[in-house]
Amino acid sequence: MLNALQRKTGAEREEQKERAALSGMAINSKNTLPEPGELEMVAKLREKFKEQLEKRKASGTHWEGHFGDIAMTRIIRGCDDNLETAEKWLARCLEKMTESGWDKFAKEAEQIVDSGVALDGNILVDVCHLDPAIFNKCANCVSGGNNTVMGHLWGYYPLCDFDKVALNNLDEKGWRNWIDSLLLSYAVGIVNNTRESVKAGKMVKTIIIFDMKDVSISGQMNKKYDDALDKDFSKITESMAAELLHQIWAVNAPWWLTQLWGALTKILPEKFVAKMKVYPADDPVLLQKDVQQMLQQCYLKRIGRSAGNTGEPSGEKEVKAGKDFEYAVSVKAGTTISWKFTVTSGELRFGGFAYWTDEDAAEIDDDSGAEVVVPQATIKTDDGEVEGELELTQDGIVTFRWDNYASMMSSAGLKYEFKH
Fold it and tell me: How far apart (Å, rounded) are the C-alpha atoms in residues 415 and 9?
């Protein structure tokens, strides 16, 4: 979601448009099981791909979660009942299945669900083979299993526990393990949604819950990680299932996300905006009894790895090895920001980055995808007090970041003050 604010090349923007056209999302999709008129369209879609589907039946790879009546009806609905678009969507799906070796994930996912193993809790480690060392260091999530909220399955992701820098630094084997566990968990979700739809007598979908508590902009805006995840995960999974998503919730939304949401609605595809809900902690939706009970249980699983990574206008901070610290501020055109700081121990890399609400950026930071407004420089204790001033020419949010990425062992001390 937030990576939509990262600046894109013309080619990247064109690719986004093409992908949005085959998003498989409907703004006002029904939750009923397949209806007669839809099944007629499904029959026509199957006839178009008769040869490929027959080969899959013969090889035992005609997965119910992809090619059954419920799955095919999701495609029709996700393509707004347009058969031509549905044909393009299914053609891409079949192509990506072959390219990515998806059948191995689909097969294991059916075996997992058939086994009756519990699908709630830490599904990545317990079911999907993620190395516990990666989970304990870099990531955290909670699966609701077969439990529902508002009639849909759900998954909970406390984003303050996702260390994108650490995930970036995984070796090739670790990264492959991370991606394969995510792909398998998605495949399990497809099977589980299909089975639960049959049981419930309606089209069951998934609510993805992103907990934004203690999340910093710098912690989320990591272009290197986002691009790698997009290539190895998102481009595959978006081709595997249509209309699987009910909504995405951003709960405990910080001030900067609430402010940037207006800009995001202009950038993101209309269908995605319709699925996305940004909720402050006291929003009435979150105070509904069943929702509140579910969230309270999830919050107990939150570790808070990134807590304290965003600061006040002045203060002192210990920046641990491999971590960063930021000060973020909302700005209007004409605002002047001044600062002074001292690295009291060790050394830190300092820079300023802007996320504008409209205009294109000049120089782009490779790490965050933001515009560089203060070039990065390494500051040491011997450099003494550093001062600076910046006049902003656009509306948006500016983050000033000190990172200790270069250190593997030692923390660094910081004393800082901003005025604006």
Answer: 37
d(CA 246, CA 104): 26
Structural domains in the chain, sorted by start: 2-6+27-299 (3.40.525.10), 314-419 (2.60.120.680)
Provide the 10 A C-beta neighbour count for residue 157.
16
Instruction: Answer for the pair 45, 83: CB distance below 8 angstroms, yes or no.
Output: yes
Q: Is 295 exposed, middle or buried (0-12, 13-18, 19+ CB in 10 A)?
A: buried
The residue to which tokens 């009435």 are assigned: 284
Mean pLDDT per block of 10 residues along the chain (420 residues) reads 55 74 83 96 98 97 98 96 96 97 98 94 94 91 90 93 90 97 97 96 96 85 90 96 94 84 79 88 86 91 75 90 89 93 96 78 59 94 96 90 90 95
Nearest-10 crossing angle of helices 172-200, 69-78: 100
What is the C-alpha separation between 175 and 181, in angstroms, rounded? 10
Under a CB-based contact definition with an 8 Å cutoff, are residues 341 and 386 in contact? yes
Calculate the alpha carbon distances from 395 to 248, 254, 390 in Å: 27, 18, 14
Indicate the burial class of 408 (C-beta count within 10 angstroms; 0-12, 13-18, 19 or more): exposed
Cα–Cα distance, 34 to 185 (Å, whole number): 25
8-state DSSP, 33: P
Query: Are 101 and 144 within 8 A, CB to CB?
Result: no
- Is residue 329 within 8 Å of 343, Cβ to Cβ? no
